[in-house]
Amino acid sequence: MNITNESIQHEDTVLLAVLGKYWERSKLGQQKYGTNLDRTDVDLLGWLNHLQEELMDATLYIEKLKRELK
Description:
By secondary structure, the chain is mainly α. The chain has helices at residues 5-9, 13-33, 44-69.
């Protein structure tokens, strides 16, 4: 996929907002950890553990928000 400034300008605002959030999260992660996702010091099991932890956090957030709706 080749993204240019011209092609992005024609995309919808929701996409642009999400891309911006990914960009900011990437910058914060690089500042915090001093590396990016191209790192090679984490093996497959390590990445799966990271993913599992993130998904566990997500389920906690969902439960919290469901309780807020009640």
